[in-house]
UniProtKB/TrEMBL annotation:
InterPro entries: BP-dependent_transpt_permease, MetI-like, MetI-like_sf. The chain crosses the membrane at residues 69-93, 105-123, 183-210, 230-255. GO terms for cellular component: plasma membrane. Keywords: Cell membrane, Membrane, Transmembrane, Transmembrane helix, Transport. It is a multi-pass membrane protein. It comes from Paracoccus litorisediminis. It is found in: Cell membrane. This is ABC transporter permease subunit. Gene3D superfamilies: MetI-like. GO terms for biological process: transmembrane transport. Its main location: membrane. PROSITE patterns: ABC_TM1. Residues 65-255 form the ABC transmembrane type-1 domain.
């Protein structure tokens, strides 16, 4: 196992473990305020210290991991669930009016970053984790549509695909039986990368107040609330910042390791 894959699995596993464990146990109650214990440095009682409201930072990080992972995972699921079929359709009917409509629609979505989409959705429905999921998910659709179409087009020119068409198989059947299995490794790697970007996007939206709302902990909002107290208690900003950095780094290393493991050309060159 390559070092990048092992390290990626370790960092990602720690984030997932923290999120999963938070359903069963946390060192403290994230909804319980203890103003007398505010801004305490890391200690034996509070391993990562406390925040400006006296809440245990380790507990906040654990529950915040649950929020970030859930938002990113569902958003990537939306992107893959809609983008991959659109990309397969565009590749199957390349250079047709259907292909043109799908790709120009993707260009239109790309013109609006996820933050702008989130602002538009929030203006209509109000800030929430659900609206953050919708915004990030919408932005992921053209990403998966483009990479699916680009990966599928060369396969459509291969001889065994021509033979399948001559045998009477339709475009939908060929796409599901022959195209999709051959590009699955590319989609898995891209899904890992978009997962890491989804965590960054969720943190960014929460930072500006468009993500998960109080009292639900969020790494991005923890950073926003800590920015005025960095000089008094640096740990309140360092802890959530490190959580974001290490989780995103782990997912990127995992994606890089999966690419090396799943791509036979890269496997053979090492």
């Amino acid at each position: 196992m390559r070092l990048s894959l092992a390290l990626g699995l370790l960092l990602t596993g720690l984030a997932v473990l923290a999120a999963g464990l938070s359903f069963l146990w946390t060192p403290g109650d994230v909804t319980q305020l203890a103003i007398a214990d505010k801004l305490l440095p890391p200690s034996g009682e509070h391993w990562l210290g406390t925040d400006q409201l006296g809440r245990d930072m380790l507990s906040m990080i654990m529950v915040g991991a649950r929020t970030s992972i859930a938002v990113a995972l569902v958003a990537v699921g939306i992107g893959m669930g809609l983008g991959v079929p659109l990309g397969l359709i565009a590749a199957a009917f390349q250079r047709s009016w259907l292909d043109e409509i799908i790709m120009r629609g993707n260009d239109l979505i790309f013109a609006f970053p996820s933050l702008v989409i989130a602002i538009l959705i929030t203006a209509a429905f109000g800030p929430s984790a659900v609206n953050a999921i919708i915004a990030i998910g919408i932005f992921n659709i053209p990403v998966f549509a483009r990479i699916t179409r680009g990966s599928a087009l060369p396969i459509w020119t291969l001889d065994y695909i021509r033979a399948a068409r001559v045998a009477g198989k339709g475009a939908a059947r060929i796409s599901l039986q022959h195209i999709l299995p051959n590009i699955a490794n590319i989609l898995i790697v891209q899904g890992t990368i978009q997962f890491s970007l989804g965590i960054l996007a969720e943190a960014g939206l929460s930072y500006v107040g468009l993500g998960a709302q109080p009292p639900t902990p969020s790494w991005g909002r923890m950073l926003a609330e800590a920015q005025t107290m960095i000089s008094l208690a640096p740990h309140v900003a360092i802890v959530p910042g490190l959580a974001i950095v290490l989780t995103v780094l782990g997912l990127n290393l995992l994606g890089d390791g999966l690419r090396d493991a799943l791509d036979p050309r890269l496997r053979g060159s090492r």
